[in-house]
Amino acid sequence: MTTLPSDERPAVPETVLAAIAAEAVLAVPGVDRLEPRFGALLGSLAGSAWAHVQPGGVPGPTAGVDAEVQADGVHLGIDLAVSGRPAAAVAVAVQQAVADAVRSRTGLDVARVTVAVLDVDPAS
Amino acid sequence: MAMTTSDSAEGTQLPCGRSLDALWAGLASGTAAEPDEHERTCPHCRTARDGLGALLGAVHGARAERDEPPPSSLRERIMGAVRAEVRRGELLPLASTPHGVVTISAQAVAVVVRFAADTVPGVRARRCAVQLAGEPGTSADGVLQVELSLVVPAGPRPIPDVVDDVRSRVAGAVDRSVGARLGRLDVVVEDVLDAGGPDSTGGAR
User: Fold this and answer.
1) Closest partner CB to A42 (pick from B55, B65, B103)
2) Among A37, A50, B103, B152, which lies 20 to 30 A Cα-Cα from A66?
3) Which value does ipTM take for this structure?
């Protein structure tokens, strides 16, 4: 296990970690979509950020992923919707996929991946 | 078909039975600027009101700045974000792995339960409350306890048979869609509906 020296900035910004995680999440079978965080949408609507709200636009690709670098490694929180497979199994697969992707592409330790399933397609 | 009706109605309905769309309409038009008695005490309505109010404020501020109406997709995004926010309010632990905990929205499970109950001919699910069968962080994770109220069809089928069908459909759906075990299902038969009677629109009134 490697830890960053305290005087060193993390080499990978949290937005990039979130993007790597989001890509891994969406590739897991049974994941329908990420569920954007409320705060992220509120932020995107505030003031001059209005220009980024495009007609027909969709939430940014990392909305629904929260990435934080802490002393013991990367902490990731993922909110998603599931369809066609048991939610519990999909969520556990997401944990593994995200931890693997972030670790292999950044070299950073992944301390925690929590997953919240906010929506399940009842017809599947 | 009944399934699609309750499915689409579910999309904008809060766990207390209030409609998110109605809340939005009242806030956006200013006709419901103050919360009513229910909204003052209901945690779901309070979360939704606070969220919609904050987003409306942001939209109005941005509109004044840019002098243009919000795109129509924005309403959907706002409703989606507020719905998700309400659903974050009640997360049940499903599993715990070395990576961390996996949770599911109690409301998302309720949608699965109601949908499954509605697949029994003539049955209409009404209220549904989902909770963990035991203490969080124990072996009870992933075992759910559900309370469901129903409208059942008028004879000739005995009501216990109908309820048995509901029970097995719900258990199957919870296993298949959620990946959890139905530890306990309490069914309350609230009403009997005549076959060929007026089409119920489902949901709470």
Assistant:
1) B55
2) A50
3) 0.80
